[in-house]
Specification:
This protein has seven helices and seven strands. It has 249 residues and is α/β, with parallel strands linked by helices.
C-alpha cells in the first residue's frame, strides 16, 4: 500500500516539469491527482500519460473565476482535499534597470497573488491531516543578478507559508515549502533566450552548485512526497531546500 492511498491531491501547473513529476509520484503512492494548466493540449497529453487516477482542469490561477470553477469541480468529484501543491510559477529574468511594469506585475500575479487565492479557495475543502506545499526557490536566500522580482515573489510566498502554518494549525493542516535549486525543466525554454545564451547561463549556474549539476524534477517530487505524507508529521512551517548544496556550501 502506498503512502498516499485514498488521498486526493491538487497540483497547480502539473502538465510538465516538477508538477508532472510530482503528479506521477503521488499517483504511484496511491493518490488521486488533479493537475491544472492553461494549455488544453498539454493538459490532455499529461493526463493521458498519468493514467486513470489523474484529472486535468484548465485554470489560470490569477483569475478568481477560474479558481472558483476549479474548486467546484474538485468538490463535486471528491468532496474534500488532502494535498495541495502550489507549483505553478513563472520567472522573467531582467536586471533591475531593465525591468518593466508588465514583467513585474505578471510575476507578482502568478507567483504571489495566485498561490494566495488558491489556498484561500481550497482551504475550506481540506481535511484534518491535510498538507499544503508551496514551491519556492533557493534564490529567496541568494542574491542572483537578474532575479530581483522572481526572488522577491518567492520570498513573499515563503512568508505566506509561515503565516498559513500558524493559521491552519488548529485545523490539523500542515503547511511547508520546497525550495528547488536549478532543475532541468521546460521553464528555461520559455525565457526567450537563444540556445547559446541558455547554455552560457546554465554553465554559469552549474559551476556554482557544489554537486556540479542541475537537479531533476523527480528529486523535487520526492521532497514534495515527504512533505505531503505522514513521514513529515512533525514538520511545520518549514522550507526544505533541494539545491545541490548551493545555499549552504
Amino acid at each position: 500500500m502506498g503512502r498516499l492511498t485514498g488521498k486526493t491531491a491538487v497540483i497547480t501547473g502539473g502538465t510538465t516539469g516538477i508538477g508532472f513529476a510530482t503528479a506521477t509520484l503521488l499517483i504511484d503512492e496511491g493518490a488521486r491527482v488533479v493537475i491544472t494548466g492553461q494549455d488544453e493540449g498539454r493538459i490532455e497529453e499529461a493526463v493521458k500519460q498519468l493514467g486513470s487516477e489523474a484529472i486535468g482542469i484548465r485554470a489560470n490561477q490569477t483569475v478568481l473565476a477560474d479558481l472558483d470553477q476549479l474548486v467546484n469541480q474538485v468538490k463535486k468529484r471528491f468532496n474534500n482535499l488532502d494535498i495541495l501543491f502550489l507549483n505553478a510559477g513563472v520567472t522573467m529574468p531582467a536586471a533591475t534597470l531593465d525591468e518593466d511594469e508588465n514583467h513585474f506585475e505578471t510575476q507578482v500575479a502568478i507567483n504571489l497573488k495566485g498561490p494566495f487565492f488558491v489556498v484561500q479557495k481550497f482551504a475550506p475543502l481540506m481535511q484534518e491531516g491535510g498538507a499544503i506545499i508551496a514551491n519556492t526557490t533557493c534564490l529567496n536566500q541568494l542574491g542572483m543578478p537578474g532575479m530581483a522580482i522572481y526572488s522577491a515573489t518567492k520570498a513573499g510566498l515563503r512568508s505566506l507559508v509561515r503565516t498559513w502554518a500558524a493559521e491552519f494549525l488548529d485545523r490539523g493542516i500542515r503547511v511547508n515549502a520546497v525550495a528547488p535549486g536549478p532543475i532541468n525543466t521546460p521553464i528555461y525554454g520559455k525565457l526567450g533566450f537563444s540556445p547559446e545564451a541558455l547554455q552560457t547561463m546554465a554553465t554559469g549556474v552549474q559551476a556554482k552548485v557544489p554537486l556540479g549539476r542541475f537537479g531533476n524534477p523527480d528529486e523535487i517530487a520526492k521532497a514534495v512526497l515527504f512533505l505531503a505524507s505522514n513521514d513529515s508529521s512533525f514538520v511545520l512551517g518549514e522550507e526544505l531546500v533541494v539545491d545541490g548544496g548551493w545555499v549552504n556550501l
